[in-house]
Amino acid sequence: MIKIFDTTLRDGEQSPGASMNTEEKIKVALQLEKLGVDIIEAGFPITSKDDFNAVNQIAKKVTKSTICGLARAVPKDIEVCWEAIQEASCPRIHTFISTSEIHLKYQMKKTQEEVLEMARKAVKLAGSLCQDVEFSAMDASRTELDYLCEVIKVAIEEGATTINIPDSVGYAIPNEFGKFIADIIERVPALKEDVILSVHCHNDLGLATANSLAAVQNGARQIECAINGLGERGGNASLEEVVMALDVRSEFFSEKTHINKKEIYKSSRLVSSITGLHVQANKAIVGKNAFAHESGIHQDAILKKRETFEIMCAEDIGLDTNRLVLGKHSGRAALNDRLQQIGFDLSDEELLLVFTRFKELCDKKKEVYDEDLEAIVNDEMATNQQKFQLKDLDVHTGTIHQPNAFVEVNVEGDIQKAKGEGTGPVDAIYKAIDQIIGDHGELMEFNVNAVTEGIDAVAEVIVKVKNKQGRTFTGKGVHTDIVVASAKAYLQALNKIVQRG
Predict the structure, then answer these.
(1) Do residues 443 and 468 touch, judged by C-beta distance below 8 A?
(2) Where would you tag: which of 52, 54, 208, 492 has the fewest CB atoms within 10 A of its CB?
(3) For 271-296, what is each residue's pLDDT tens digit?
(4) Tally of CA atoms within 13 A in the half-sphere of 156 that contains its CB
């Protein structure tokens, strides 16, 4: 079995604009457990009180997956990490240090001997606290092999149960990386026995999945990856890609995973919704076009024999290829049935809220698609938890008069009103909202996307707002009216700033 080590909540969350609060992290962690992930890297506890609390709460709530915390090769980091995860059913300390020459010279400013000793002490301390210890040699793929193996042997001597070989900057090429892994295993005999060799590949050259699979072919027994390939810069190896590659090409790979494939799509959508980072349409496995066919030749072939142009079933990852067409004549039962088919199990109260939004949308477009429903559910659930909610909006614009907006915001039950003027309707709305809530930051990005096709498409606005401490928060709003979606997105970002900024 290949162990799947998910780092969405740690490395993935470090993607600019992808930070999550404790409640959101717990929600993702519980879904990862449902997905069947072996090890969940819940966070980097030393970085902040919020991160510590999130890791600690996840350690208490998740019972089936190993809960891992990250720590530098520094005593304080390791001690705090253990404090955060010690209540987990299966805790793991993951400690790391750079080993490449360029990192030692410019980042660490230490000699190989000094780093070797730091690694020794770090693993020894971690092992005295926790039975399950993972050690990573950061930038391993650019580290001189003899020195890397020396560090690995020291880590194993001090009690490391997993050795991770990161391609930290996505520099490796599959054939090269596969041989690199094979050479390490050959030089360190313990990796053929009880100690697991892991790989953590970044996607800077678009090769993270290929490098991870090359490593498996050469003896790696754990893959570190993230939902939707989320991660710093170009991202990490994509969980859905490595899992489905091992599954679809089972005649080539003898290795299997514990992943429940039918939870893949739901996991992807949840992470995308919470982070506000879109999954590109042609993304392998989970993109909206991954199982779509427009070409007449393809459609004809698919109708005759699905396998002509599909190497896996949409049902395998939790999708339903049959789509129930929903419109203004549909009732609540039909809506609930479709929501359950696409992965949403709502309470009666939540269903009523979504049904109201659904009926409003049906008055504006003939057919409501799955993507519309996903947008409505995610937007309604996020809005329902906000301190500040949009009550009403009246915008005036044109070529003669300066754009202005009258905005009403529900502030925990108190309806507050303000008027704003700006260079455009959105600017006027945001200035009116600032009068009500206060100026909490600077708008850095504003993006509008159509959730579905056509002139009656639902608009999805995503904004990024930087608070006065320099942290960036993402907000998302959904509505058929772009200015309303813009107001909802800005309010969601401000809610996050006020609550966590």
Answers:
(1) no
(2) 52
(3) 998 998 989 989 999 988 887 765 55
(4) 20
